[in-house]
């Protein structure tokens, strides 16, 4: 039996007012179209599921790495297998949990984008942004006298091959990190707890996860945590995981190209001022400042998109009101 027309109009009005088409509001009752708030798991359960997702993803990567031979001759093989297996399992876990817990997937955050020109453009914009950010870090560090580099390529063909192969590895690693920290767990928590709490919380977790690196300095952890905020708000502003993936890859590849010994002789100017040897620009004043500014820019972009979404919602609500 067909529902009365006024019920259809009421349903459309309720859907539009309770769930903005583009926004990420998590006010009471705005947890997804057709999903009543009471049908959502409790905050503790959502947090447990999200943390479980992140822990499993991290455990898989560490387990694969530890399970392979650690000999110098096998290092590339070890890194390649770890990158491929951990990424594959994390994506498979994402697909599985999306099917098992569809109510937790935020409808405005794209984790499985379609293959096509539109997706390619998102990746390219992210790559350009990441490249520009780290190039700015490098230029500012140079101007401040924190580092000096001299162009030196002993074997151009070998350098290019190394750069290309390393870029592929960095792409796999960055994609895994994004699906771990800005993927399903991020989406589920945004839907339950709101965007800002999740961007800060998982951004901090992203920084703490890098504590497993060899004796990281405090400035490095601060910088990586800021990078987590940058990537989190980049995900919120773009609504598409391909953008933070591109941003992450662009940063890492540019960092490798500018600071590895394959293309440059890279050193600190004067007395050492950076804790790590060889120096890591993330822990420089330039790295911290530019990363913080990037995070601020991503936050502003997110807030602007939220404001546009609310305006669109209000216009849609007014359009649905009966004309007198």
From TrEMBL:
Q: Does the keyword Mitochondrion apply?
A: no
- UniProt lists compositionally biased (Basic and acidic residues) regions at 1-12
Concerning InterPro entries, the annotation shows: Rce1/LyrA-like_dom
| Region span, Disordered | 1-35
Keywords, ordered alphabetically: Membrane, Transmembrane, Transmembrane helix
Q: Give yes or no: UniProt keyword Membrane.
A: yes
Residue intervals passing through the bilayer: 46-68, 80-97, 118-144, 156-173, 193-212, 218-236, 243-265, 285-304
**GO terms, molecular function:** endopeptidase activity
According to the entry, every stretch annotated as the CAAX prenyl protease 2/Lysostaphin resistance protein A-like domain falls at 162-253
Q: Which GO terms describe its biological process?
A: CAAX-box protein maturation
Q: What is this protein called?
A: CAAX prenyl protease 2/Lysostaphin resistance protein A-like domain-containing protein
């Amino acid at each position: 039996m067909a529902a009365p027309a006024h019920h259809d109009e009421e349903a459309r009005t309720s859907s539009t007012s309770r769930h903005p088409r583009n926004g990420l509001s998590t006010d009471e009752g705005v947890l997804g179209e057709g999903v009543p708030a009471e049908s959502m798991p409790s905050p503790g359960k959502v947090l447990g599921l999200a943390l479980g997702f992140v822990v499993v993803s991290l455990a898989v990567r560490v387990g694969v790495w530890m399970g392979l031979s650690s000999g110098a001759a096998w290092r590339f093989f070890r890194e390649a297998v770890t990158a491929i297996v951990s990424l594959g399992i994390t994506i498979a876990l994402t697909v599985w949990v999306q099917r098992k817990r569809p109510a937790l997937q935020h409808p405005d955050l794209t984790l499985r984008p379609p293959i096509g020109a539109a997706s390619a453009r998102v990746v390219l914009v992210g790559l350009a942004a990441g490249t520009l950010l780290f190039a700015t870090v490098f230029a500012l560090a140079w101007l401040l006298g924190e580092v000096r580099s001299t162009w030196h390529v002993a074997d151009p063909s070998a350098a290019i091959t190394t750069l290309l192969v390393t870029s592929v590895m960095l792409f796999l690693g960055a994609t895994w990190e994004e699906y771990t920290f800005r993927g399903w767990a991020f989406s589920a928590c945004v839907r339950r707890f709101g965007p800002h709490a999740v961007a800060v919380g998982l951004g901090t977790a992203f920084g703490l996860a890098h504590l497993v690196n060899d004796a990281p300095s405090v400035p490095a952890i601060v910088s990586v945590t800021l990078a987590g905020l940058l990537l989190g708000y980049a995900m919120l502003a773009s609504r598409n995981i391909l953008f933070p993936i591109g941003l992450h890859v662009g940063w890492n590849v540019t960092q490798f190209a500018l600071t590895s010994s394959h293309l440059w002789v890279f050193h600190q100017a004067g007395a050492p001022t950076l804790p790590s040897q060889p120096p890591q620009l993330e822990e420089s004043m330039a790295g911290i400042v530019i990363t913080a500014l990037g995070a601020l820019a991503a936050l502003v972009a997110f807030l602007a998109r939220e404001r546009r979404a609310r305006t669109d919602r209000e216009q849609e609500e007014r359009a649905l009101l009966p004309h007198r």
